[in-house]
Design a protein that fits this description.
Order of helices and strands: HEEHEHEEEHHHEHEHHEEE
Number of helices: 9
Largest sheet: 6 strands, mixed
Low-confidence stretches: none
Strand order of the largest sheet: 7-9-6-10-8-11
Bound molecules: adenosine-5'-diphosphate, magnesium ion
Number of strands: 11
């Protein structure tokens, strides 16, 4: 059973109270009495699956643990408010390491005006495990879900894609960290959640669906398709690529489109809106929503897959 089939099985064991949005989106949405909605998401980072403890610095890991969670609030067009941090620590990790981790966690929290309000600390037999929960808010009914995409809508992304995946590939291949490679590794270790872009896209009232790019466009567009009951066509020649990525790919013979679509962890936003819409946020139109129910690629020989656990 794959990751998403398993989540579906778990989902079917519970019913969701009226007015709430549960499993299947970047955050749960819970209406409050003050006319706002609370947004909640939780994300775990496990040593050797999400990070290599002997490569990433504690401060970078602290940054990234908070960043990937804040990004799920950005994906709803919400404002992050607070986080809760749980850590399971193997014996090899001491207090000094934890305080450097907290330094990175604090610097991104300050950047987004988010505060740490709780968590849990315990020991782990072997590997390091970090779980963060984030709370955010938006106006009642204002959250942008994965479920609103309509045939004919444009599919758009903020930012360039593939830098983070290329950074990871460079780490795994032990490439020399010259300036160019170091910038890609930095994109992997220091994602900046697109909170302001998400808020401004939500404020237009015309964005029909949104998700943050955590598992790669190839995987994340499938979530929008599934939740919205639509198909999609992606024009691979329109995928925005940074100059750094293009240079490194031609130097090392890597495929930039595969890194951009399958790699993930860019933490930019993927969203849909009526075609030809004027938007207040810099973006690239990479495709369109269709009524075929299928995912199509303009280079039709390929079928890109995003990251999946199991
Ligand atoms: P994201 O990539 O945005 O963090 P995921 O792909 O991890 O989202 O999760 C998809 C959806 O499934 C989310 O709504 C998440 O809350 C839910 N989910 C994932 N794992 C579980 C679980 N073990 N129990 C309940 N819900 C889960
Ligand atoms: Mg997400």
């Amino acid at each position: 059973m794959g990751e998403f089939e398993l989540i579906d099985k778990i989902k079917s064991s519970f019913s969701v109270p009226d007015g709430m949005t549960g499993i299947g989106d970047d955050c749960a949405v819970i209406p409050q009495k003050d006319g706002k909605d609370t947004l909640v998401s939780t994300d775990m980072l496990v040593e050797d699956i999400h990070f290599l403890a002997d490569d990433i610095s504690p401060a970078d890991l602290g940054w990234k643990s908070a960043a990937v969670n804040i990004s799920d609030i950005a994906a709803m067009g919400g404002r992050p408010v607070s986080t809760y941090l749980s850590i399971a620590l193997p014996r090899s990790i001491g207090q000094e390491w934890v305080m450097r981790f907290i330094e990175g966690y604090r610097s991104i929290s300050e950047m987004f005006g988010v505060t740490l309000l709780g968590g849990d600390t315990c020991s782990s037999p072997d590997k390091l495990c970090i779980s963060v929960t984030v709370l955010g808010e938006c106006a009642h009914g204002g959250a942008i879900l994965r479920s609103g995409a309509k045939p004919g809508d444009s599919i758009c992304v903020t930012g360039t894609l593939g830098d983070s995946a290329a950074g990871l590939k460079a780490i795994l291949e032990g490439r020399r960290r010259d300036d160019l490679v170091a910038r890609l590794i930095d994109a992997h270790y220091h994602p900046v959640p697109e909170v302001e872009a998400g808020l401004s896209l939500a404020s237009t009232g015309i964005v029909s669906s949104m998700i943050d790019i955590s598992d790669g466009v190839a995987s994340d567009i499938r979530h929008i398709m599934e939740e919205s009951g639509v198909g999609a066509k992606i024009h691979t020649e329109r995928i925005p690529l940074s100059e750094e990525l293009q240079k490194v790919c031609s130097l090392f013979g890597w495929d930039p489109i595969s890194l951009a679509l399958e790699g993930g962890e860019d933490y930019h936003l993927l969203f849909t809106c009526p075609s030809g819409s004027e938007l207040p946020v810099k973006h690239t139109v990479i495709g369109e929503i269709t009524d075929t129910g299928r995912l199509e690629w303009s280079d039709s020989g390929r079928n890109y897959q995003g990251f999946r656990h199991f």
